[in-house]
Structure formats: structure tokens, C-alpha cells
Amino acid sequence: MTRARPGLRFAAALCALLTLLSGCDAQFPEARLRIAAGNLNGVYNNMAQYLADTWQRTLGMPHPEVLDTSGSPENVTKLLSGAADIAFSAADVAAEPHPGGAQPQALARIYNDYLHIVVRADGPIQRFADLRGKRVAVGSPDSGVEFIADRMLRMFDLGDPGALDRRSMKVTESAEALRDGKIDAFFWSGGLPTEAISRLADVVSIRLLDLTEEMPLLRKQYPVYNSASIPASTYRLTGRPVNTLAVPNFLLVSADMSPDLAEALVREFFDAQPAMAKQVQAALAIDRQSAIETDPVRLHPGAERYFRAEKA
Asked: Which N-terminal residues, if any, form the signal peptide (predicted)?
């Protein structure tokens, strides 16, 4: 019998040790993933680009393709139709019933977005009801901003045709239009601070509409939303913090993804989080302990296995 040379035995032992320490046994060379990731240079997209690089490097897979989209509704549609394998989405969109009965599953809860309804501080709009008859931008078509704006407008009798002069704009376009007096208000749902709104506040005094009156009914109808406040210092506002709603964001996959792959994606996601936060500010808010809280969206079995092992 031929005996293995000492050098080969040492190499094999070293390889085995590195495998145990690094988790390199979870390699997925055949996993060709597509990530539905929102607008170019948005938080979803920036996070997706970082994760695509990370997953390729740590899981031995081809570089995942990052798909530019209009936002959460399109992301979930792509995921459930098979045009994407991973999707970023706000919880309100993810929790909606979808055609055919298919529902996404969550890998993790990531960070919260905060609803901004922005007006000029020197204008007449003081309350949500004052939007009636005004020129209001409601986000890009098929975006998460438009989704939440439509919900609120319908709930508070501003959704009928003619109730307001509705405009479809991205947040940067909305901020410029408000600055130039071309619109009276705009909706935005995003992290704190949002750069486009910070830049607007540098040149125009702004007000964020307080939703204290609207929150009880809104949360009763849609418990996926949480009450939150935006500190006045965020955008150099005058007065007290602004009460608004917060909506969690989820990292989603389909129920068809293998538990082994799902578990590996979640593991590498959290391992990469400290470094990712240096490039994507929203990643600072990601917390492993609360990431398991994806109700009303079911946690994927592979993600559940990861959190159970981590005792999250």
C-alpha cells in the first residue's frame, strides 16, 4: 500500500481545518442568482452590490446579477415570477396577497424606512388633510413610495380622481420641484437622513407633516406599520420631533430556495454586515437579534436554521 507523503497529509489536514473554521464547505458553484434591487444608487441597490461581491467571494458562486428596478412592488413581482431569486422589499408590499397565492419568504429583517411627507415651511400645508387640491408627488410608478402613498390617500379620502394634482417623481426630482415651486408636497419613504431631503433643507426651510392623528387608524388597518418619530435635528426642522410611521425592510427569497443555500446567504450577510456598514449607512441599523422578526412574512426554513444556531 502506498503511504501518503507527510506534506500531503499536512495539506489535507490544513484544508480540513480551514473548512471547519471558515464554513467553506458551503460552496455553491452552480448557484446563479439574480437580486431585484431597486433604483441605481439607492440603498437596496448599494446593499445588493456589496452582497453580490461578498457571496461570490465567500460561497464560491458566480457573481450574482443585480437587477435595477423601480422598487419593492417590482422586486416582489420579479421574485414570485421567477425573474429574480432574491428581492429587497418593504414589509407592507411583501405581506400583500399575490396572484396565484404564492408568497415570498424572508431571509431577514434588515432596517426601517420612515415615511416623509415634505412641504415648504412657509407654505399653507400644516396637516395631512391640507393636501387636498394640492400638487403632490407620490414617488416613482410601481415603487414602494407610491404603494404607501396610495394606501394613505385612499384611507383618508384623498384617493379619488381630482382630490389632488398627482405627480409621479423620484425623490431627487420631487425635492427639486418643491424647491422650485412646481409642487406643494411630496411623499418619500426611506432612511434617516435621506440625502436628497438634506440637500433640499440646505436651501429651503421645510416641514414634515406630523401623522399623530392618522396613525391609530392606519396601524389598526395595517399592523405591519410601526409608530416612529423623526428628530427635528435630522433636517434642521423647527419644533418637536415629527411623528410618522416606520416600515421594516426584508430580504426575501422564494419558498423554492434550498435551505442550505438560504442558510449560507444569511450567514454571510451577517458576517459581512460590519464591513458593509462602512459603505452603506443603512446597514448600521441591521441587528441580528431583531432580524428574525419578519412577521407577517414567513421566515425561510434555511434562515430559521441559521437563527436557531445563533440563538437569535
From this structure: 1-26
